[in-house]
């Protein structure tokens, strides 16, 4: 824990300015001070529980950056694996939450996606922002059969703006009325690796900060989509965890006009939940007969 002390010290100093009547903040017993104490003591589940309570009770957005810094510091320990020790129920295999920022010529789009793998038939999946605010009325729920017993359910929300930091709630309801729910805290991290277009046919990977050694390596994915019968269909895809390329080998696909999407994905955990931040850039891409 020694390596986290300098940043925690700065957080403690800023927290002391939040105390009232000049009472030393360590002598108070608010959820915020408890979150700091638990982080100092290495009790990440208790720290996370206190942080959820702060987000539930606090109405002053001025401390949101402080809460974000505190949360991001907790991820330096083990990338969020210890924030929640409660396992999934036996019928729920995995939960992945993805925030996507999509940049295409002349338009930016935002999505929230929840992927659930389950042994039971799932009736509904919802993601809402505290307090009980629906993300969007533009949503869909699709299924993919992975095996005879396991199905992947994908709930997709099309958003008007980027998902903000703060407290969210995930609810999964099965057809037999079994249910599972969890609080989800989203921070506002700055992407440590990002991607942008460098020329007509090339992109550039930019490294903006040191990576958290406890988190998976950022994954770059390049995909080609064909537009058929009013829908985009992925016809090719390749992912990379290192030695990121900056262009596409055109020999992988037949000549024609496609949409090329390049994404940079950062992943962490919140206990058993996987949380991903995805930056996607896309543009029209021509593969000529001469190549």
TrEMBL record:
<feature type="signal peptide">
    <location>
        <begin position="1"/>
        <end position="19"/>
    </location>
</feature>
<dbReference type="InterPro" id="IPR021290">
    <property type="entry name" value="DUF2861"/>
</dbReference>
<dbReference type="Pfam" id="PF11060">
    <property type="entry name" value="DUF2861"/>
</dbReference>
<protein>
    <recommendedName>
        <fullName>DUF2861 domain-containing protein</fullName>
    </recommendedName>
</protein>
<keyword id="KW-0732">Signal</keyword>
